[in-house]
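Students often ask what a 'structure token' actually looks like in practice. Rather than answer in the abstract, let us consider Tripeptidyl-peptidase 1, a protein of 565 residues. Its sequence is given first.
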Amino acid sequence: MRILLVFCVIICSSLVLSEHLESDQDILIPEDWTRVGRIAPTEKLELTFALRQQNVDQLEHLLLQVSDPESAQYGKHLTLEEVTALVRPSQLTQKVVHHWLQSHGVTDCQTILTQDFLQCTMSTCFMNTVAEALLPGIEFHRYVRDGISLVRSSSAYQVHEDVLQHLDFVGGVHRFPPKGQDLNEVLTKRRQSGAKFHLGNTPATLRSRYNLTAADVGSAQNNSQAVAQFLEQFYHPADLAEFMMLFGRGFQHLSKIDRVVGVQGAGKAGLEASLDVEYIMSTGANIPTWVFTNPGRHETQEPFLQWMLLLSNMTDIPWVHTISYGDDEDSLSSAYMMRINTEFMKAGVRGISILFASGDSGAGCRHLTKGENSFRPSFPASSPYVTTVGGTSFKNPFKVTYEVTDYISGGGFSNVFKMPDYQVGAVEGYLKSVSGLPPKTYFNTSGRAYPDIAALSDNYWVVTDRVPIPWVSGTSASTPVVGGILSLINDRRFLKGLPSLGFLNPRLYQLQGQGLFDVTDGCHLSCLDEQVQGQGFCAAPSWDPVTGWGTPNYPALLAALVLEK
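Now compare that with the structural description of the same chain:
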């Protein structure tokens, strides 16, 4: 559907994607996927084997040291070569896995610099022939939905115990991508929930609210930032140029992407991709920007995993990455999420800041058995090793004024990851001081709490397919805004001879809201049931699980983050 110049509201959600792991249970095929004819014998299938890494505990320790201003190691980031030497799988692990694959005729495999992943290509006919020996129980079929076709196994499989101890997961086997939201459906929901008319957010609005002047643009030679796009999303250079012509006249900026990593798809640009690119480049203005892109929904791999592999295979990459995608924690294997956490640690210890959108479903809702419900956290937003960005709205829709909670802003407590030490004091303070919390049966009070920070997330102007579209909303909007501001702070740090910010959270929680506008008004949505009646958590002074520590006050945050102890 093409959306023309009409007054409309679109939630540009944190799009859903994920991976899957070794299976010890029956695989449920989603009802909207249909199994079709046989797979051609000449078709190729790509599987990713995640080899067990070494020294993961030491990696975490180093990450926290280089990210803590009170540590003597603060800012002493590792090179990719040093990360490789630390986590590279043991010679025994590499030997066992390579021999296992080769003994079953799987020889077309590629590794990456850190040597902890193998991507192997084989024909589907060949795979089904040797399935009982390589991955007993596996059987591939073709499935289709809404014009999308992919190859998956509908049956559980096992890995021999001699090999299992050397693998974290096998990717590209079971997971069916969840169905994305229809824009008409989202539009209807947003209108029914009471969206108010106002003129919309533009770079000028954001720069005014967060106290960015025309002089606050990048100038350091070694700075760069990036967005990553998945699920058939890509930007169009003409849209970026048009956007900057319309909305970028008040500050120095770039109108072209510095580098595209991957292959852009054909056809119309994606709204999500346009939003990410246009707003990281208008907030982090005049800073070279990369786009990591995928041409489609990989038949045998979820593209998020491909992006993680790229980060581990490139020595020089941007310092700030923003990603507006996620998935429900309960739809993923713990083993997969734990391994992805290690990949985030590998990036952070190199001085790279990774930001994820908190999601657009508030606290979320999972319907359990016997009519009971619980909140539904999102991953990677719930990862302890990324900075998660929530969303806000203007209190007065006709003015650049103070902010309140955007009711869709994702937030809550992980059911998988324990609360990291850096946030214990802040989160416990919230839980003890706020009255009217949801029942404890709805959330895990000891889990990693998110978001960490927030920004405006509703009513953005975006140019896509050469058409300015008003009122695009979601934490997909707030995340590149925060990313651009962090890139500007990196820029000033580089000019002073300081290292990049890297993994921000330990420093952010030490600041205890310094440099940020505290958001204390409003709640986000959750389960529509008798107990919580659609309300999740509410904002409060200091940190809260709706807007984190608040939204950026650029001059104050800059001062707090460029001063070394």
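One point worth highlighting: The domain at 203-562 is CATH 3.40.50.200 (Rossmann fold). Ask yourself how you might have guessed this from the sequence alone, and why that guess would often be unreliable.
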